[in-house]
Amino acid sequence: MKLLALLLPFLLLSACSDSTQDIKVQKTVLGQSLFFDTILSKNNTQSCAQCHNPAHGFIDDRDNGVAGMASLGDDGKSIGDRNAPTAAYAMLSPEFHFDKKSKEWIGGQFYDGREADLAGQAGGPPTNPVEMGMPSKQALVDRFKNHPAYSQQFKDIFGDDIFNNADKAYGAMAQSIAEFEKTETFAPFDSKYDRYLKGEYELTDLEDLGRSLFFSNNNTNCSTCHQLKSRDDAMGETFTNYEYHNIGVPTNIALRQANGVDVATIDHGFLSNPQINSNEHDGKIKVPTLRNIAVTGPYMHNGVFAKLSTVVEFYDKYINKERVNNPETNQPWADAEVPNTVNNDELKKGKKLSDRKVQALVVFLNTLTDKRYEHLISKDN
């Protein structure tokens, strides 16, 4: 029933669709249907919604045999090597570009920004062999062409000749899903923090301490990467500057052992982007939004950390000599997967944190959770 209630805003769109409706809205309605349809996968077992579940912060909340660190493919055996990022608030990531003012690469989709926009991202999984596994764009387009409802929708929106060109029809599919992902349901901005800004919620003492620490560059330096807007324009904050940085995340050995990828393999992150060819970008990952961070674990691009408090302690260990062990393993922190480009200049700014301050930051991060997901927040995060 909760999922049905969550989808009601989407379903209402369908009720008002007709041939005279605005093309953008028609694309949204089509994209809505496609997002939840397993027709996109080779064996008809996987939809976008399974790896980006709207009932769980638009992430893959399945265990998949790897404690949720990565997603299971349509073939029932392939396991990815990166954690599925949330699709929530993804619409607000700017198109991939080089910013001349900051001299940084900004935006795009995926952890390495290899797709410029949402449509590019939506077009990736269907033909990825370890995800949805369709053998070709043409194979998927043929399914749409032979599907009574989709065939008509595609023609109504994109023209009667849409199926004459597989690339064009495949792109139409991706555009439609992107339009759906731009709807308010993916970015409601109704968390406790948003309500606090509107004067509708009073932060607890611990939440307020966490807020102060988060935005204090003298204490934590969190906001250097995880703040986009000025404090005077905090409404609509996405908690990411959309830049790319290497923060020293270690290899997820447990995931590699489960998915068959050699543990010595290096995930080069941003350097994997076809537009990037300088080794200075090796191992960098796009700064993620912190919206819904409390309910979208496991954490980091490879799911190597299970708890949000571990992530905070991981950052703190660059400053705090007492944080010698990973609290999840009780072993010393593992080395960075790509050590040569770790952004130590930023990571070593700030002051060491007490356990109470770690707790305060976690509690504040909890307040960035969309209202409909607040019941998912774990007391042990």
Structure summarized in a few sentences:
The chain is 31% helix and 4% strand.
Structure write-up:
It is a single chain. The chain is mostly helical. It has helices at residues 2-15, 23-35, 48-51, 118-122, 137-145, 148-158, 166-181, 192-197, 205-214, 253-259, 308-316, 344-347, 355-366, and strands at residues 97-99, 104-106, 244-245, 285-286, 325-326, 331-332. The strands form 3 sheets. A two-stranded antiparallel ribbon has the order 1-2. Strands 3-4 form a two-stranded antiparallel ribbon. A two-stranded antiparallel sheet has the order 5-6. The protein starts with a helix and ends in a 15-residue tail after the last helix. The model has no long low-confidence stretch (mean pLDDT 94).
**How much strand?**
under 5%
- State the total count of DSSP E strands: 6
Helical content (DSSP H or I, runs of 4+): 25-40%
Give the CATH H-level superfamily of the largest domain: Cytochrome c-like domain
Low-confidence stretches: none
Q: What characterizes the major β-sheet? A: 2 strands, antiparallel
Which value, in Å, is the CA radius of gyration? 21 Å
Shape: globular
CATH fold topology of the largest domain:
Cytochrome Bc1 Complex, Chain D, domain 2
